[in-house]
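Memo to structure team: turn this sequence into C-alpha cells by end of day. - J.P.
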Amino acid sequence: MLAYGPGGGYGPLREWLAARHGVAPGRIVVTSGGLQGIAFTFEELLAQRPGRVLVEAPTYDRPLKLLARLSAEVVPLAMDEEGLDPGALERELARGDTSFLYTIPTFQNPSGRTLSAGRRRQVVELAGRHGVPILEDDPYGLVRYEGEAPPTLYELAVANGGDKGVIYTSSFSKTVAPGLRVGWVDAAPQLHQLLINAKQTMDTCANLPAQRLLTGFLAGGHLDTHLKTQRAEYHRRKVAMQDALREHLGDIASWTDPHGGFFLWVTLRGGVHTERLFEVALAEGVAFIPGTALSPGGRFGDALRLCFATTSRERTFEGVRRLRRAIDRVAAEDGRGDGA
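Reply from structure team:
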C-alpha cells in the first residue's frame, strides 16, 4: 500500500470504474484529481491536433489557465439557459483549424446550467461530422438533486456507433472528498498510453493509499448512500442561497437555478463591475469568483460565481448580506446611489 503503484492506477479501482461506466478497465487512467487528467489530455490533444480550442463562455477558470500556459488559442462559445449553443459551435467548427471542444455539460462550472438532451445529440453529431474530439468534464453529474439525468456525451457517442470522438473525465472530489485527489480519464486506446506516459513522467502514479482506501469505500457499497445524503444537503444549501439572494439582492440581480452541482451564476444590474466589487467584498469578509476570471476574453464584468456547497444557511445569509453591503459601497463610490 505504501509502495509505488501502477501508472494507470490501482487495478481494483480501475475495474470498479469500468464496471460502473460499462467500459473496459484498460480504458481507465487514474489521475491525481480531475484537473490533472484535464491537463494531460489538453497537452496530448494539442500535440496531436494543433489548432483552436473551443470552450463554453463562461467556463471553469483552471482549464483556461492551463490553456494559457500551453499558448493555445481559446475560442469562447455562447451559452443560454439550455447550455452550449449548437449554432455557435457549428459556426466555429465550419471555420476549421479546431483542436478540440472542452465542455462541462452537466451542472456547468460556473453557471450551473445543464446542456439539454436535444442539444447533447446536436453537439456530438456536429463534432463527429467535423472530426473534432470532445473532452467531456463531468465532476458534478452524480450530484443531482432534482430531475432526470440526460445521457452523457460519451454515452451518446457510443450509441451512435463509436466513442473515438468523446474523452470522458471525472473525479471523486465532488462525490466523496476533495482531499483524496483521485480522478480519472476514460480514453480510447490511442490516447490511453500517452496519458499513462505523461502521468509517469509527472508523478509516477496517483496516491496509492488514497486509491486503496477509496476502493474499499466503493466496494463496500457506500457511495450511493453517501450521495443520497449529499444530494439532500446540497439541495438545502442551494435553496438557502437563493432565499438569501431574493432577500438581499432581489432588486438588483438575477441568478441561475441548477438542479445539481455547487454553483449559482449571478448577474448584477446597475453597472457595478464585479472585479472592482471583489476587493470591496473581501474587506467585508466575503468572497466570490468575478465573471471576468471565467471567460477567455474577460467578459461578464457584470456577473459572479457563488458556491453554496460548503456553507450553512446562517452563514450563507450573512455572506449575501455582506455582499449587498459591498455592492452598495461600490455603487455609492461610483456616484450611482444605492446598488439598484
